[in-house]
Amino acid sequence: MSLKELKKQISKEMFLSKEVFLIAHKEIDLDAFASMAGFSLIAKKYKNKTYIIIDDKNIEPATKEAMNSIKNKLNIITSEEAKKLITKKSILYILDTNKPKLLSNENIIKEFKTITVIDHHTKSPETLKSKNLYIEEKSTSTCEIVASLLNKFRMKVPKQYATVMLGGIALDTNNFMYKMTRKSFLYCYYLSTKGADVDEAQKYLKQDLEEYVNRSKMVGNTKIDGEIAIAIGQKGKIYTRQELAKTADLLLQFKGIKTSFAIGYLEKNKVGISARSITKLNAGKLMEEFGGGGNKTEAAAIIENTSIKKIEEQISEKIRR
User: Fold this and answer.
1) Distance between start and end Cα atoms, the chain
2) In this structure, what are the phi and psi dihedrals at residue 200, rounded to the nearest 5 degrees?
């Protein structure tokens, strides 16, 4: 499906719908939230009641700050609240993931007859079985895709929305360091013409000092094998998915490192992996072997009832094949 075809499909869906619901992956990040916020502008253009579904109880600081900046302009509800509002003319848009198991509530999809997916992560056997899929793996982020749609629809984009979306792109490109293409720069420029505040977008990415210290300790426990770096979490230390992602991003900044992994406990019996690659190794395909996914350059997985040591050994074995 081309972007032009997606615009045509959305126009038709919006015209036939009365309520529009937006949902993204659990443990929502800035790209997921900002893409939903930006897409909500299109729904409002068609005068549809628009709801953003978020079930996460703990939201990482950058996303929380972005939410606070525009939450009074959005209808943010839980999936349980959504069930009471869904009608036969309701439509669901899934953004920033294409796998039902990664949604904040997988069961919500059963409530809708019409579902459309807009994402930049790699398609896999676990991808939602739907004819309405727009997956653009070459895009830096879902915010980039939504920005292109806003441009196609010739939308008026309020300054704060543009700022939050620019922050989403910055997050998924590690502050514009990786994956940037001419198209990426074009839509960053587009958002700037709508008043996006670069300084404010950067504030969303400011780091917590304690978190940075913990991440530095993890980097200090990194094993390097040629162009590959594997950071190992501290024993007994519980990390967030965002901390692992930032650690993997950080490793790529070091000279000679082209593939990086950060492994740590997310819970007592649950290990998280964050993978990054700027070489021929496909991070998304590799993480699919661990039950996760992503795209060629960035991916993640969560494995239960295992240990960091076992995961480290399995990664080392797989990348040497």
Assistant:
1) 34
2) -70, -40
Contact partners, residue 254, CB within 8 Å, separation at least 6: 229
Contact 257, 228 (CB under 8 A): yes
Q: Within its chain, how far is the Cα of 37 from the centroid?
A: 13
Specify burial of residue 204 (Cβ count, 10 A radius: 0-12, 13-18, 19+).
Answer: buried
User: Helix 142-152 crosses helix 3-16 at what angle (to 10 degrees)?
Assistant: 70
Q: Are 301 and 290 in contact (CB under 8 A)?
A: yes
Q: Which residues contact 102 (CB under 8 A, 6 or more apart)?
A: 25, 26
DSSP letters of 24-89?
-BSS--HHHHHHHHHHHHHHHHTT-EEEEE---SS--HHHHHHHHHHGGGS-EE-HHHHHTT--TT
**Residue of 69 and 145 predicted with greater confidence:** 145
Residue type, 87: T
Count of beta carbons in the 10 Å neighbourhood of residue 256: 9
Q: Degrees (nearest 5) of the Cα angle 38, 144, 71?
A: 25
Q: How confident is the model at residue 210 (pLDDT cuts 50, 70, 90)?
A: low
Q: What is the DSSP letter of 123?
A: P
Q: Is residue 185 very low, low, confident or very high in pLDDT (cuts 50, 70, 90)?
A: very high
What are 84-113's pLDDT values in tens digits? Answer: 999 989 999 999 999 998 898 889 999 998
- pLDDT band at 219; cut points 50, 70, 90: confident
Question: Using one digit for the tens of pLDDT, what is the confidence trace for 271-292?
Answer: 999 999 988 889 988 998 998 8
**Residue 175 clears pLDDT 80, i.e. is over it:** no
